[in-house]
Amino acid sequence: MERIGLIAGNGQLPFLFAREARARGLEVIVAAHRGETDPALEAEVTAFTWVRLGQVDRIVRTFQKAGVARAAMAGGIGRVKALTEARPDLGAVKIISRLRSFRDDTLLRAIADYFEAQGVTIVAPTDYLSQVLCPVGHLAGPRLHPAQEKDVALGVEVAALLGKADVGQTVVVRNGHVLALEAVEGTDETIRRGGKLGGKGAVVVKRCKPGQDLRFDLPAAGPRTLDVMREVGASVLALEAGRTVLLDAPQLFKAAESEGITVVGVS
User: Fold this and answer.
1) CB–CB of 166/197 below 8 Å?
2) pLDDT per residue rounded down to tens, the chain (267 residues)
3) Beta strands, E only, 13-120
4) Is 55 helix (H, G, I), strand (E, B) or coil?
5) How much is the pTM?
C-alpha cells in the first residue's frame, strides 16, 4: 500500500487530511510537532513520530525509513513558539544559512526544496481536501448590507497588501476604518484586538497572500473563529473562496446562524 507523509501542526486540518488520505487507500506516516499537534491524531494514522520544531532531518529520516516519497504540511505552528522554542538541527541550519530572507513563504519553500533533495516531494494538502475549501457567495447568517459590503471590499484590498509583504492573512475593519492587521499573534488575537478597538459590528476578512504557494499555510476558519468573534461582537466573517479551508463547516454555519454572524466567501 502506498504511503504518504504528514508534517502535522495544530488544529483540525491534520485530522481532515489523514482521514481523506486513508479514504483514498493511503497509509499516513505522521511527523507531529510537540506542543502543537493534538496527540489524538495518533489513533487515526499508520505511524506517528513526535518531533520538535526545527528537527528537519529527523522528519526526513522518519519518512525515508517508512518509504514515503510524498508528504504534505497541514496545520499551523504558533509564530511566537516558532521564535522561542525552535530546536534547529543540522538540516535546519543548512536551510537557514542559504536564506537571505526569513519571511514565511521563503522559508517554507526552502524547506520543501530540502525535502525534495532528500527524495520527499512536498505536495499541497488541498490536493486531498478540495471538498473543504470555502465556496463563493453567502454561506450563513444575515445578508450583508451595503456598509458591510464596503468593509469587506476594504478588508480584501488591505489583506492583499498585508499578504504581499508576507506579514499575515487577517484584517479587521469597521465603518471604513482598519482596526487590526494580523502579525505574529495570529488570527484569534487579531480579531480580539480589532473588536476591542472598534466595538460591536466588526468585519473580519481572511485571505491568501498574493502568489501564495498553496502547499503551505493556507488560511483556515472554523467554529473556534466564530467563538472569538462572538467574544468581541464581530458580525461578519469574509473568507477567500477556493483557497480558505473550512474546518467543520456544518458546525461553523450552524453557529453563525445561531449567533447572527454573517459568513461569506469572496473571490
Assistant:
1) no
2) 899 999 999 888 899 999 999 999 999 999 999 999 999 999 999 999 999 988 999 999 999 999 999 999 998 876 555 555 667 778 878 888 877 766 667 778 888 999 999 999 999 988 888 788 999 999 999 999 999 999 999 999 999 998 888 788 999 999 999 999 998 888 999 999 999 998 899 999 999 888 777 888 788 899 999 999 999 999 999 999 998 999 889 999 999 999 999 999 998
3) 27-33, 47-51, 70-74
4) coil
5) 0.82
